UniProtKB/TrEMBL annotation:
Catalytic activity: Hydrolyzes the link between N-acetylmuramoyl residues and L-amino acid residues in certain cell-wall glycopeptides
Keyword Hydrolase: yes
Key words, A-Z: Cell wall biogenesis/degradation, Hydrolase
Source species of the chain: Catenulispora subtropica
Pfam families the record matches: Amidase_2 (PF01510)
Keyword Hydrolase appears in the UniProt entry: yes
PANTHER family given in the database record: N-ACETYLMURAMOYL-L-ALANINE AMIDASE AMID (PTHR30417:SF1)
Listed name of the protein: N-acetylmuramoyl-L-alanine amidase
InterPro entries linked: Amidase/PGRP_sf, Amidase_domain, NAMLAA_amidase_2
Length: 578
């Protein structure tokens, strides 16, 4: 049932509601079923932005602005039809009918919790939580919190019939005392329990036992017990997608022969499962250095079709989890510290390439905004140096589909060319046209440093920025290699989407006379981890620096191509910094 819209949506095809409009429909439903108008308006705006969405269901099988669901574990659509006498077709397609059905279900939820309807708006917190039909009580509370936040802030939106619906801000303190009585909808997966023995409050406990899975105890195994952050500093969160469902992930991570693990799993309905203690080292990032220093989070979804998977509920649940982690471990809110599996380098050319998840449909700006809304500040510092930029396009700022879902127009990858025109060849990379490939593009919200900019000579309206980029030009040779070579290339981005960003700017300088700098897959002094080169004098954005474990050697992370890479302090000159 849960969708939890948290941003504006693109309009859907208009649907007739009634001759008297949507506002009148709220009034009639409130009068008939005793649910306050502002509660109905809040849920309708939260779930469906006042729209019937052409009668099309959400990915959870929910219809209309009240998100009446017909799914495996919930059937409020047929319940609404039985309670109201309206047809299922009307409930699916007509907003006025959908509002009436939602009101009937909300009344039933309230009477299932107490013998009388709540006497005030504040008392509708628990019935709204129950209306979510969430699989855990924490997600049900998240749903009710979102509805009451809309009551507090107010909103104005346009319904399918063209009528503007406005809810003024309400000074309402929610009565959360009934949340403990709200039933949850689904049985927990095997190996999981709902208890308080978790690091993140509200997570479902699916932590695997050390005796069967800990590589310090047994073999085969899936993780390494540790005592982080005392054993290893924790300064990153790695975002993954599962390439399947949450149950697929649990099945994998509960298999001691899989050799892989992760700390958290976020389902599409907002449920958070903890599969490993934060203090322990999960095998998730494809680079053991990152495993040592990061918390890994898997998300239900498939990167190539992420627009069909990533929804507002999943984003918000993950954002709340990440906000907790950032506050707990003092991790900055930016893409240098909230990394993708796809921006994590492979440690050596022998293990390249690394994975590409969560892919081009993960909306980083939208996601960071949700984390920021949990009270986590954005990094601040000096005025960003001229030439520093991150890509912040409209396609990365909100789901563009119905019910908090995305469309193929959502996009966070942008392509590089050999010259200042999109008519020029794309830079060398992996063969094929796989949209998830990361050898010829960059990702939004990561800092880069440009040497020149101009309008696309092909006349598309795109803006072209010349940057240094670690090209995989050796993949097409007679002896293909993942070794990268830094070249100048032009990235095409929507005009106006390149915005300032805080980062160091580095100029590379060689310690030898051969004119090239070795680029590493992890900040460790060993030729084993060299994954590419860059010429002396090349300039790079470097959003973070760390000391090599167990030493005083300082390293800078540069955004080398689509991924991070590392250079030692001895081979850089800091040109500018934030």
């Amino acid at each position: 049932m849960v969708t939890l819209l948290t941003c504006g949506l693109a309009g859907a095809p208009a649907q007739a509601t009634s001759s008297s409009g949507v506002t009148a429909a709220f009034a009639r439903a409130a009068q008939k079923y005793g649910v306050p108008e502002q509660v109905l308006e809040s849920v309708c705006y939260l779930e469906g932005r006042l729209s019937a969405h052409g009668g099309q269901p959400s990915m959870d099988g929910g219809y209309g602005c009240m998100h009446l669901v017909k799914g495996r574990s919930t059937d409020t659509l047929d319940q609404a039809a039985k309670l109201t006498g309206l047809t299922v077709t009307a409930l699916q397609h007509d907003t006025a009918a959908n509002i009436m059905g939602g009101a009937a279900v909300l009344r039933a939820e309230a009477l299932a919790l107490a013998p009388k309807l709540p006497a005030s708006v504040s008392g509708w917190y628990a019935p709204i939580a129950a209306y979510s039909h969430a699989s855990t009580r924490s997600v049900a509370g998240m749903y009710a919190d979102a509805a009451f936040k809309l009551l507090a802030t107010g909103f104005s939106g346009v319904a399918d019939d063209g009528e503007t619906v406005t809810l003024a801000p309400q000074a309402v303190a929610p009565d959360t005392s009934g949340l403990a009585s709200v039933p949850v909808a689904a049985a927990l997966p095997a190996g999981c329990t709902q208890d308080s023995n978790v690091d993140y409050p509200g997570a479902v406990d699916c932590v695997v036992p050390a005796a069967t899975y800990d590589c310090n105890v047994t073999s085969p195994c899936t993780y390494q017990s540790s005592s982080r952050p005392s054993s290893f500093a924790m300064y990153a969160v790695t975002i993954h997608d599962i390439e399947g469902t949450a149950q697929d992930a649990l099945s994998t991570f509960q298999d001691p022969n899989s050799g892989v693990s992760v700390h958290y799993i976020v389902d599409s309905d907002g449920t958070v499962y903890q599969a490993l203690r934060e203090k322990d080292i999960a095998y998730h990032a494809g680079n053991f250095y990152y495993n040592e220093h990061a918390v890994g989070i898997e998300h239900a979804g498939i990167d190539a079709t992420g627009y069909q998977w990533y929804n507002a509920t999943e984003y918000l649940a993950s954002a709340k989890l990440v906000a907790y982690l950032l506050n707990k471990y003092n991790i900055p809110l930016d893409h240098a510290h909230i990394t993708a599996h796809g921006t994590t380098p492979a440690p050596t050319t022998g293990t390249s390439p690394n994975h590409v998840d969560p892919g081009k449909y993960w909306l980083w700006d939208y996601y960071f905004g949700l984390i920021h809304a949990q009270g986590v500040p954005y990094p601040t510092g000096n005025t960003p140096a001229a030439g520093l930029f991150r890509v912040n396009p409209s396609s990365d700022q909100a789901p563009l589909g119905a019910n908090g879902t995305e469309t193929t127009a959502n996009n966070s990858f942008f392509t590089l060319y050999t010259g200042p025109s999109t008519a020029d060849p794309v830079i060398p990379g992996a063969s094929g046209t796989d949209p998830t490939d990361e050898t010829t593009n960059i990702e939004t919200q990561m800092p880069y440093y440009y040497l020149a900019e101009q309008a696309d000579e092909a006349g598309t309206g795109m803006e072209m920025y010349q940057i240094w980029y670690g090209e995989n030009d050796r993949l097409g040779g007679s002896s293909p290699s993942q070794y990268a070579d830094a070249k100048l290339a032009w990235v095409a981005v929507p005009a106006g989407s390149a915005v300032p960003v805080h980062s160091y700017v580095l100029s590379l300088k060689p310690t030898t006379k051969n004119g090239t700098i070795k680029i590493y897959g992890r900040p460790t002094t060993s030729s084993t981890y060299v994954i590419g080169t860059a010429p002396t004098g090349s300039e790079w954005a470097a959003p973070k620096s760390v000391f090599e474990d167990g030493t005083s050697n300082l390293w800078f992370a540069i955004d080398y191509n689509h991924r991070e890479a590392w250079v030692p302090n001895t081979e850089v000159t800091v040109v500018a910094w934030y």
